[in-house]
Amino acid sequence: AEKRYLVYQPPSGLGEWYMSLRNAAAIARVLDRTLVIPHLLWDGAVGNTVAYSSIFDIAPLLRLLPGAIEMDEFLQYGLEPSLLILLHVKDPRLVPSRLYFDAVAGWKNVSTTHMPAQMCESTDLLRLYGGCSERVLAFSHLYAAFEGFTGPAGLPDLANNHWFRVAVAAAIFSDLPAVQDKVARITQRLRSNTERYTCVHLTDLDTAVISSRAPLTRGFEASLETADDDVAIDIAQPAARSVPFPASASADASNTMRQPLTVCDSYEAEARHYAGRMWVKQVSGKGATCHVSELEIANSLARLPPRQTVFVLADGQRALPEDMAEAAAAALNAEFFTVGDVVALLGLSVRPTEWPAIEQAVCASADTLLLNAYSPLSAVIERRASDTAQRASRPLPRIMQWMRVNSDVCIPLFTRTARFDILPNRFGILGQFGPLRKLQLATTNVSALIGWDGKIVPNASLELEVYVSNASHALSLFEYTKENNMKGMQFTIPPPPDGWRVHVWHSLTVPILDSTYSFPMSTPWDSMDRLEIYYANPHPLQPRGDYVRIRNMFLRSTRSYHEYSADSEVLQRYRPCRELSLPVAIKLKAGGRGRGRGRRGRDGNPRGVATSDGEVETQPEPDLVATEEEPEAVARPWWKVVLAVVLGLFVSCMALAGLFFTVSVVASRLGPLRATAYARAGYMQVSQTGSAPAANS
Prior knowledge:
- The protein is an alpha/beta fold.
- Helix content is about 30%, strand content about 20%.
- Keywords: Carbohydrate metabolism, Fucose metabolism, Membrane, Transferase, Transmembrane, Transmembrane helix.
- GO terms for molecular function: transferase activity.
- It holds the Pfam family O-FucT.
């Protein structure tokens, strides 16, 4: 049988190129086609192409995709598609194009057709393209075009998804032996002082394309090719034009497509827009910044681990300013290097095509990473760093992100109103949150707040509202730990400035000090699902009837290291978390699970839910009567609803049939008994009157 091929246009940035190749491998597997691996676009130009095998080791990928070929070999066959498929994917900023096909393959006369790619699972691709008999299936791009394998009944195909997300990703991250040797020497030099080092990914998403030259800073010189160029291995945009979101989410802006000044401007506009993607809203809500200003660079560098060598991966036209690097080096007591610095220091001979692979591999081998949450290459480095640490039997690297200055990050732990009846016990246990209890935390992943030392980035605080019925038995101790008294934090809740007043809501802000932590570096901050609270003055014989209510419980981090001015945006910092407009993704999706999510009713107030340790009431209060348990509203698939209805009808019919059968049996048994009873009644009547019936005479 003739081979059928899958061809697609490559993006210009290395991070997005990786993701597109991984998606293409999965789609080729779904459609049973031979994958054609495209070029990498050097300097972002479709006329300056480089084969994948000249930069990375292609052998591991060919073992997973037998028969896969590169674009240069495919072009020798003289094949071309009958149509170019221009995909419209979920990324609303990407408009498909055909530039690569026209310039490299010479398919200028091939017609095009537009196809949606809003549903990108394997079953959708089979339905759309599985019956295509064309030898060449050509897509405009495959970035954001595949979501995973599905099996029977729409369930995830675990085996194929593991192949897609783990095996293929690892195969793509394969370096040539010469690159591996140079990376080993560079990382050995970076670890020579403290055996640990940090990688800082300083991005420029507007001008970043893959290039052949690493920046030389801090006085080192080298006679390498294209010495005036900078290495730039992040993404500017794929082989498609970028159409941004409107500048605001107002009614007028919904029909206006204003061109933002930068890619980061479009991300910020998308985060505010009602149709923005969930991941963009989540990243923005956590305080991450896309365009990193000098003030944000200084602010974030101050959070790095002290005395660790810092490796700077700068792409696009960005470079770490010399004065900022010197100031940070003095403050952290650490050395700052770029890949060009270390290569010149060690006297290594590096081919131009080896620069991007070396720089990425060195960064992925670091113990601490400072990344850009909006950059595709940062996402690739984070994934590759995890794989590298596992292969080397090292702890996973600590991930940090560039954060906005003056961005107070609020993460909700519990936004409803919970009432805890005080039960006599000598420990003073008031209530517990946990996975084995009905009451669960709204957010279990608080790692966005955590710095290099395993503690919440200063200034850290806990905000909550407390309502007590007895001032002698108020909220006293807060234990937020993964294990009992270990791995987390615990501290005493101080009374309000004017003391505890009964039947009044008290708004408290409790500073979180360094002394409150227990084993912070070993704490799994991405899965903190346990919380215990205690009341004051416990006694095993105390009378019952007292209670404590809590609501609007938030962890907060200011992330600021400078004086605040008096402008209106900065003054937002002083507003309580409960008054800030947090994105829905942060309130409901960020690590939240179970019954304790902060869902809101139509009036905007959080709904109630019952707990195992207390009763959660409807907000706002305060009447003293707890509500009944509210069942969790869970959206079910349509087939489950239909199945439930059919089963209900079947059970009802069986019940009616059983009832009819029972009535019939009882009636059949009662007939002879009734006749016998009538006969006996007639005999008794004859005996009493002394005459016999005519039938018996």
